Batch of 2 targets.
Target 1
Amino acid sequence: MEYAVESIDLSKAYGSNVALDGLNLKVREGEIIVLLGPNGSGKTTFLQLISTVLKPSGGTAIVMGHDIVGEPLKVRQVATISFQDPRGFWRHKPSHILSFHASMYGVPGQNRRELVERTLKEFDLWDSREKKFMHLSGGQAKRLEVAKLFVHRPRLAIFDEPTTMVDLDGKRTIWDKIKQLREEGSTVIVATNEVREAEYLADRITIFAKGREVVTDSLSNLKDSVRGGDVVDIEFAQPVTRAMVDELSSVRGTAKVSLVAEGRLRVQVNRSEDWLPEVTRRVYSMGVKLSSIKVTEPSLDDVFMQYTGGGGP
Amino acid sequence: MMKAGLGTMASLLAFDLREAFDSPLWVAYFWLFFAFQFAVYGSLMSRLVVSMDHYLFYYGTGLIVLLSFNVASWAGRRFVESAHEGRLRYLLSLPLGRNELFFEQVVLGVAVNLSRVMPPLVFVLWASHLLTAGALLYSVLVLSLTAVGIIGLMVSLSVIAFRSFDMYSAIVAAASALLIRFSTLYYPVSSMTPAYGDVASANPLSYGADLFRAVIGLDVSPLLDPRVALAVMLALCVGTVFMGTFFMSRMVEGVKSS
C-alpha cells in the first residue's frame, strides 16, 4: 500500500457553503503531513471526513485501504482523530476517559491501567487524574485530547491543531510524542495554524485555501519555490557602481536588486545556493572585493503568502 | 486486537452509566419529586375524583409512566446535547457501528429509566397490595417498552436539532405536553368526554400507561384493551427503533461546533 490516505474528488458542502471542493490528496504511509491553511480553508472538514465523523457530499477517500463511504467501520478501526476543541465529557475524570478510549480500541484490561498511568505522566496530567474534565484548564483538556491517541497508537493518527491552548513546554512534549508516533510506524496528519509547528513536524506540507489543495511538497522545496524568496545582502569593499548592479541583475535567478547603502546591495534571488557561486565568480572577474555576504531564506509565512495570496495561516 | 461490536458497545455503556450515576443526589431528588407528587397531589386529586375507587393508585401508576416518559425523553435529549457539546463527533469517530451506537443509547436510557423508577414502582405496588414477582417483572417490561419507544422517537427527532436546537426544543416541549395531557396518565378514557377520549385513544402514551396498569393487576374495566395496547406499544417500539437506526446510519454526523 503506497498511500495511507488517498482522497478522490472529495467534497463536502453545507447547503450552498462548499467547505471542501473536490480534493485529491495523497498521504504517504509513514510520513507526517501537515495541513496549513487559513481559517475556513477546509482542513478540519477534511480530517473529519477521513475519520468518518462527517459524510462526504461527493467523492470518497481510501484510508489504509478502506473506503470511507463503503467501509467506515474499518476506517475507524485504523484511524483515530484528536479534535481541535476538547469537549463533552464534563463529569468524567482524565483516567476514566483514557481508559475508556483504550478499551474501545481493544487494549486488554491488564495493560490498560499501566498504559493510562504512563500516558497521564507523559502528558503532565498525572496530578489532575482525579479532577473532573470540567475542572481541567484549557491546556490540560487539550493535552488529554491529544493523549488519547497514545494509549492505542493508531495506524493513522490525525491531529487537529494539537497544541492550541498548550504552553511552550507542553507544545514541545506533544511535538516530540507525535514524531515518536511516526517513528513507531504510524502515519500522521496534523492540521495547524502554527507555522513553527509545521516546520518542526512536517515531512511534507499541504497548503489549503478555499476548500482546495494549493500545493503539497517538502518544506525545503516549498521554500525554494518562492520566487525571489532568498534575500542576499552583499557588502562590498568599495562603492557600488551601475556596472556592478547591471552585472548582478543579469545573473540567472535574480529577481530584484536594491541599493541599500553606498557599498551594500540587497538582492532577491530564487535559489541562493545556485546563484551565489556564479555571482562570486563574476564579482571576482570584475576585480571587485567583497566584505561580507549574508543569506536569509524565506520563511514558511512567505511560502504561505505566495500560495494563498495572504490571509495568514 | 479490535474488540467485537458488542464489546465496544458494552464499554461505551459502562462509560455512560458511570456518568449517569455520578450524582446520587440527583437520583434522590428524583425519588423525592415522586414522593411529593404522590403524597400531596395524589391525595388531593383522589379527593377530587370520586368516580373511581382507589384513584390514588391509578394516579400513582400514571405518575410512574410519566417519570418513565421523562427519563426516556432525557435520554433522547442527551443524544442531541451530546451533538452540540462536541461529544457525538467523538463517539462517531470510535470503532463502533452507527446502529450499535443507537442501541447503546437505547439500552442506556432503559437502564437509567429502571434505576429511577424502580423504587417508586415497588412502593406503589406495595402500597396497593399488588407487589408480586410477576407484577414487578411485567411492569419492568412494559415500562422498558415504553422507554424504548420514546427514546427512539426523541433520537429520530434529533435530526431536526442538527439544524436548529431551538426548533427541536420547541417541538419536543410541545409534543411532550400534548402527549402527557391528552393521555390516560391521570384519567381513564371512560371518564373523559368522547372527543377527549378519542384523542387519548390515539395517543401511544395512553396505551403504555394502561398496559402497565393491566399487567400489575389494576381493574381493567376503565382501561384501553390490553391486547390492543400491547400491539400499539410493540408497533411504537419497532417503528421508532427502525426510524432511529435509519436516521443514525443515514443522516447523523458530528455537528459543527457553534
Note: Residues 227-297 of chain A form a domain with the Alpha-Beta Plaits fold (CATH 3.30.70.100).
Target 2
Amino acid sequence: MIKVENLVFNYPKNDVPTLKGINFDIEKGEVFGFLGPSGAGKSTAQKILYKIYNKYEGIAIVDGKNLSDWDNTYFEKIGVGFELPNHYLKLTGKENMDLFASFYSKKPVKSIASLFEMVDLSDAINKPVEAYSKGMKMRLNFIRAIQHDPDILFFDEPTTGLDPVSAHKVKQHILDLKAAGKTIFVTTHSMATADEICDRVSFIVDGKLQVTDTPKNLKKLYGKEALNVELYNGELREFPLKNLGRNEDFLSFIQEDDVKRMHTEEATLEEVFIQVTGKALKV
Amino acid sequence: MKKILRLALVDFKIIFRDNSLKGMLGLPIILFVLILWGLPPLVEKYEFLAPYLSLFLVIAVIENTQAFSFISTMVLIDEKETDVAKVYGVVPLSKLEYILSRFLIPYSFTFGLNFLLFIVQPFFEISIGVNLCISLLAAFVVPVYALAINSIVKNRMEGMIYIKAFNMIVLLPIVAFFVPEKFKPLFGFIPTHWIFQSIENATLGLPVGLLLSVGFLYFAVCLWAVAHLFIRKHFT
C-alpha cells in the first residue's frame, strides 16, 4: 500500500537533512509503527506521506501511484490523527465534525453520534470544544480522522494526553480498524503502545532507520529465552526456557522453598531499542 | 460551491461567538451614522471643512474595509494558533477553494457596504458604474490585508502588532492629498493609493478609468503574491 525508497528531506533552514534516505513499505491491512525519540524524523516522514511537505527526494508510492501524481482525491483516501488537538474552540464537537465531514464526497459509514459514543464523548457532543479536556480533544481528533472511512490512516502519537482507559480504548479502535482492512501508519515514542498495536515497527534515530521487524521478533532477537526465579530464602537463579518442564535442576530448585517471584527474561521493546540504537528514548 | 459556502458560514458562527470579533461588525454602522448624520451639520457649521469632504469619504471607504480585514485576520490567526490550519492541509479542499471560502462573504459584505455608502452619502454625485468599480476595488483590501498578515505572523500577539502597522499602511496614502502633485506618485507603491485617488477623481467628476485599471492590476498582483506566500506557510 505504501512504499518508500531512499527518502531524504531537509528543512529549509537546517544544514543536516532530517530524513537521510529511509526505506520502508507498509502492506495493506498492516499497522506499521515508527518508533523513535523526539526530533528523530517520525512526524516528518508522515507529513511527507500526507502531502504537507512536497520538497523531498526519493520515491514515495501510495496505492500504486507516485505521491506527487496524486491530486486532491488523495485526501479522500487518507485520514490523519494529529499529535495535538486542533479544533475550532468556539464550535461544538458536532459542528467541528460536521464541517470537516462536509469536505468529503463519501458519506460517513457511521453517524457522527455513534462516533462520539464510540469514544465516550456523547455527553459532550453539543458542548463547545473550548470546554473539552485535552483527552477529550484528542478523542475528537481520533474520530475526525476516521469519520470518512479512509483506507489509509496516519496517527501521530495516538495515545498522547489520554488517560490509561481512553488510551486502551483508542488502541482497541486502531486494532478494529486494522481488522476492517485499513492500512495504519503510527508514530510513537511509547514502546508499550507500539508493542500492543503494531504488526511491524521501525526504529528511527537521527533520520535513519536502524531496524524493521515485528515486535515479537525483535524481542526474541535481543532478549534472553530464560526464566528468572527467586525463592523466599533469597536464592535467585536463571533457567533456559527450552525443555524447562524436564529440567531437573529447575524442578529441584523450586522445591527448595516457596517461590517469591518468577519471570521470563524477554526483552521489552524499549530495551531492544536501546540495544539497537544505543540511545534511550527521551520524549 | 457547497464546500465553499459551508466554510464561509462557519466563519460567521465563529465571529458571532467571539465578542471582540462580533463587536467589529458594529464599526460600519458607526461610520454610516457619522457620514449621514454627523458630517453634514459639522460641515455646515465649520465651512473650512468643505474642501476635505472627499477625504472624509476616502477614510470612510477604507474604514469600511477594516472591519472585515480585522475579523478575517483574527479568524485565520486563531486557526493557526489552534493548529486547525493543519487539518485543512489534509482534506480534499483545494487551496483556491479554501481562500475563496474564507473571503467570499467578507469581500461581498465589504463591497456591499461601500456601494451603499456611495449611494447614501449626501455630498457627491457618483455614477453607479464608478461606484461599482471603486467598491469592487476597495473590497480587495480585505483578502490582501488578512492573507499578508497571516503569511507573516505566528500568533495572536504578533498579529495585533502587525494589524496596527497595516492599519497605518493602508491609510498612509492620505498624505498624498497634502503634498504637491508631483510627489503623489510616490505613494503608488501602497495599493490603497489607487483607491484613494479614484475616489478623489470621482468626487471631482474627473476620469477614473486609468486609476481603477492600475488599482485592479496592482491588487491582483498583490493578492496573487500574498496568497502564494500564505498557502506555503499556513498549512504546515
Note: The mean pLDDT of chain B is 92.
